[in-house]
Amino acid sequence: MKKTSAILGGLLILSAAPWVVAADAPSLYDQLGGKPAIQKVVDDMITHVAADPRINTFFANANIPHLKMELVSQICAGTGGPCTYTGQSMSAAHKGMNIDSAQFNALVEDLQLSLADNHVPTGLGNKLLAILAPMKKDIDHK
Amino acid sequence: MRTIKLKPPKLSSSLLGCGMAVGLCVTGMPAALADEGRLLATGGATQIEGSAGGGIVPWALISGYGTEDEVGGTAFLTNVDVPHYNLVSGGAAVGLYDRVELSYARQRLGLDNTVLSGLGLNTSPAIRQDIFGVKVKLLGDAIFSQDTLMPQVSVGMQYKRNLDFDFIPKTLGARSADGTDFYVAATKLFLGGLDGRNVLLNGTIRMTKANQMGLLGFGGPGNNTYQAEFEGSAGVFLDRANTWMIGAEYRQNPDNGLGAPLGVSLHQSAYKDAYVAYIPNKRFALVAAYANLGSLPATTQPGANSSNNSGMYLSGQFSF
Ligand code: HEM
Q1: Cβ contact (<8 Å) for A134 and B197?
Q2: What is the ipTM of this complex?
Q3: % of chain B beyond a pLDDT of 70
Q4: Which of A51, A111, B157, B196 is the most exposed place for a label (fewest CB within 10 A)?
C-alpha cells in the first residue's frame, strides 16, 4: 500500500513536472511582449518587405491589413499566446506563387531587420525564427 | 611566398573585399547581389583543404551563398604559423545549386632549416600539395529543419597529390605521393540552441591514409590501409545578425608509423583549434584561431621526438 502510493506519488510528480516548468518559464509570447510587440514586429517587417525589390512584387496586390492580422495571430498562436490561427495552411496560402529559397530568405532577412529595429533580444528573436523556419518546406516551391 | 596579412575589415568591407579579390567582385553592393540567396554565415568558412567547413574540418554545408537555383562560390587564403613550420593554403570552391561543391586548394608547408639538420641539409624547403575536392549534399537542411534533430548530411572526397613526395615524405617512409580521402559530414544549426544563441554542431567521419593531411604523403611503414577518423566542430553565434562566432574543432589523424626509416618517432596526433569567425557580410569572412597541427618533428636528428605544434591560424574568405 505504502509502496503503491509512493509510486503513484512519483508518477504524479513526474507527470506534473512539465507543467511546473511551463508555469515557471513564461511563454515566448509573453517574453516577446505579447500582442502589441508582435504587431509592431509584423508591421515593421512588412515595411521592410515593401521596400525590398527582391520580393515586394509578390505583395503588390495583397490585402496587407488582412495579411498582418493573419501573421500576428499565427505568431501569437505559435509562441504560446492566447490565439488560434484561422488562416489558410502555409502550403495553401502560398500555392502557385513559386517562391524560391532566395525569396524566402529575403523575407527572413526583412524579419531580422524588424527584430533589430524593435530591439527584440537576440535569444527571443532566434527562438521565433526557430518556430518559423520549419514552415519553409510548406511555403517555397508551391 | 607569404600570405597576405588580412586585417580585420571595417564594417563597410565589401568594397575593400572587392579590391582584394580582384576579378571576383561583380558589384560592390552586398544587398543587391545575385546568387547570394542563402542566409548570412550559412556557407561556412573554408577549411584548410579547401572545402566549406570550419578551420580544419569539412562541414556538410555547400560553399558560397547560392540557393537551389543559384551558383555561388568562395576563394580563400589561410596561413598557419607553428614552431619551425609555416603552412599556407589557398584556393577556390564553386557551389552548384546548393547541392554540389567543387574545390581546389594548393597547400605549401614551409620548414625552417633546423627541421632537416638530421639529414645534413641546411635548407628551408617546402612541401606542396594539390587538393581537388568534391562534395554532394545528400539530405537534410542544416538551417530550416528546426522541428527535427535531422542534420544536413553530405558526402565528400578529397583527391590529394603531393608535389614534393620524393624529397621528405618518402624519406620518412610514406608509401605514396597521392591519396584520396572520403568523408561523410553531418551539420546542424540549432536556432536559439544555447541560452538563446544559435549553435552549430558538426561531425565528420573521414576514411584516410594521409599523413599530415597528405603533406607527408600517404600510408607509412606501420600502416598502409584506410583508417576511419572522427572530426568534430562546435560553434556559437554571439550576436543577432550572426556576424560573430566562436568555436572549437577536433580532428583525428591516422598514425602510419612515419619516421621509422630514420629512427625518428613521428607519432601523429589529433589537430585541434579554437576559433573566432567574423562574417560582416556575404562577401567576406575572416577566421582567426589558435590551432594545434598535431605533432611535427622539430628536427630529423635520430632519436628526436616530435613535439606538439600550436600557433596562430588566420584565414580570409571571399564569396561570390
Ligand atoms: C516564414 C515565412 C512565412 C510565413 C509565416 C507566412 C505567413 C503567411 C500568412 C499567415 C498568410 C495569410 C494566409 C491567409 O490569408 O489565410 C500569408 C499570405 C501570403 N504570403 Fe506568406 N508567409 C511566409 C513567407 C512568405 C514569402 C517568402 C512570401 C513571398 C516572397 C510570401 C508571400 C505571401 C503572399 C503574397 C500572401 C498573400 C497575401 C494576400 O493575398 O492577401 N510569404 N503568408
Answers
A1: no
A2: 0.83
A3: 82
A4: A51
